[in-house]
Each structure stands twice: as structure tokens, then as C-alpha cells.
Specification:
2 domains; 5-stranded parallel sheet; 4-stranded parallel sheet; Rossmann fold; 268 residues; 9 strands; globular
């Protein structure tokens, strides 16, 4: 039975959701977490909708068996494809990811807002609705960025190879005309330094992680499920449907991103 001391489940199509996990650990330091990366079936963006839903149900079943009190679907593609079905089937809070277009708009900077994402996310009704409702008068560019996910899954998150890949996506855009970049895929959360190195430090980065975890915090608080803490360091358990290498990449990328988030937090 779920309670205050039950862990929070987080799953992604692979290791990209560790960026969401990192934000969650920063904002909810008293909570324990179970992370499941479905690298064995990645990338979801190349799968049929029925397959994606099946994988999402399997991931939720796995996390529920671990006794989680809530689940974060830390994958934009999974969210747009399966979130409604998951919420209908399971009796616990299930949160998904939304491209942070509103965050980028709130920056109120002149220039293009570039939304990086998979083809499925960029074509989704949810993103289209966001742009139609909040993006009037803004120059919003949808930028498909699929191949970089393969590099991230292989543990490549910085260096010449990843920067060359990112530069290839942006080669049709003038960096000086870009004001902000929206990470429409949780895999991209570990790329902030690389993206700024390619485009320029003047750009603002927006992702949906902070908003999602803030929403999760509110839900757990309203349901009296927030862990008050007991003086012990909470557990973070990692699982992956792929190889042991994918599991190690998950842990390594999490540690790298978590340290990056903490360094930003300590500046303010």
C-alpha cells in the first residue's frame, strides 16, 4: 500500500529521463525514487502507437510492483501517445512531460524560439495546441532532432561528436536570431552545455522538468503523500530493460546532470 515513505517511479524510453530524475531529486530531496529506462525498446519515436502504449503499460506495471506512490512519464513521446490510457487504467498520480513553450515565451526575448524534439512530439496535438494558444506573435521553429538520442543512449553527452550532431540540426538557422531553445525531449536535458557551445551562451534553455516536478510536488502535498524525511539519504534505484551498459550510462548521466543542476542552484 502506498504511503508517504513509498518511492516515486520515473520511466523513460531509455536513459534520457535521468534529466527529469535529477530535477526531481533536487526539488524533492526527502523522496526515494525508482528509475526504469526502457533502452531495450528505444527509441519510441520509431515505434507504432500500439507498441508505445504496450511498453508504457509494462513500465508502469514494473514500477507499481516496486510499490511506487506516483509515476512520472519522463518521455515526451510516451506522454503524447499513452498518458490518457495510463491515467485511465491506474489508480495513482501519473504525470507526463509537456514541451516548455510557455516557459520560453515568458523569457520575453526577441528572436526565434526553437523547439527540439522527435517527429512524434513535434507533430503532436498537445504541442500544436500550446503554440496556437500561447505562441501567437512569436517565431517558433520546430526542429526534428532524432539521431542525437542514439548518441546519448550510447553515453555520449559532450565533446566533438555530439557538438557536430547538434550543429547539423541548426545549420539552417542563424544563431544570432535564436533567443531560446525548448528541449522537447528529456534526453536533451543533459545537452545544455553542448547546445550553448554550438549556438552561443546568449540563448535561454527551457525544458519541462521543473514544471512537471513542481506539479508532482503539489499533487503529493494535496494527497498527504510527501515524505517528511527521516534523516537518512533516500534510495535511488536504477533499472533498465537493455544491457548493463545502458544501466551504467543511466547512472553516470544522472550523476553528471544532478551535479550540473546543483551547481546552478548554488549560484542563486
Amino acid at each position: 500500500m502506498k504511503g508517504k515513505f513509498s518511492p516515486i517511479g520515473v520511466f523513460d524510453s531509455g536513459i534520457g529521463g535521468v534529466s527529469t530524475l535529477g530535477q526531481a531529486v533536487c526539488m524533492l530531496p526527502n523522496e526515494a525514487f525508482v528509475y526504469f529506462g526502457d533502452s531495450g525498446n528505444a527509441p519510441y519515436s520509431l515505434k507504432a502507437d500500439t507498441e508505445i502504449r504496450q511498453y508504457c503499460f509494462q513500465a508502469c506495471e514494473f514500477l507499481i510492483e516496486k510499490g511506487v506512490k506516483a509515476i512520472v512519464v519522463a518521455c515526451n513521446t510516451a506522454t503524447v501517445t499513452a498518458i490518457s490510457d495510463l491515467r485511465e487504467k491506474y489508480d495513482l498520480p501519473i504525470l507526463g512531460m509537456v514541451p516548455a513553450v510557455k516557459v520560453a515565451i515568458r523569457f520575453s526575448l526577441p528572436g526565434k524560439i526553437v523547439v527540439m524534439g522527435t517527429g512524434m512530439t513535434l507533430k503532436s496535438k498537445s504541442l500544436t495546441s500550446l503554440i496556437e494558444e500561447f505562441g501567437k506573435g512569436y517565431d517558433i521553429v520546430k526542429l526534428p532532432c532524432r539521431d542525437v538520442i542514439t548518441l546519448i543512449e550510447a553515453g555520449v553527452i559532450q565533446g566533438e561528436e555530439i557538438e557536430t550532431c547538434i550543429a547539423g540540426y541548426f545549420n539552417q538557422l542563424d544563431p544570432k536570431e535564436i533567443s531560446s531553445v525548448v528541449f522537447g525531449c528529456t534526453h536533451f536535458g543533459v545537452l545544455e552545455k553542448s547546445v550553448k557551445k554550438v549556438i552561443g551562451n546568449h540563448i535561454k534553455i527551457a525544458d519541462g522538468n521543473e514544471g512537471t516536478i513542481r506539479h508532482l510536488t503539489n499533487i503529493l502535498g494535496n494527497e498527504n503523500l510527501l515524505n517528511p524525511g527521516n534523516g537518512h539519504t533516500p534510495d535511488i534505484l536504477f533499472y533498465n530493460s537493455g544491457s548493463s551498459v545502458s544501466l551504467e550510462h543511466s547512472k553516470k548521466n544522472f550523476e553528471t546532470h544532478f551535479k550540473f543542476l546543483k551547481s546552478i542552484k548554488e549560484k542563486f
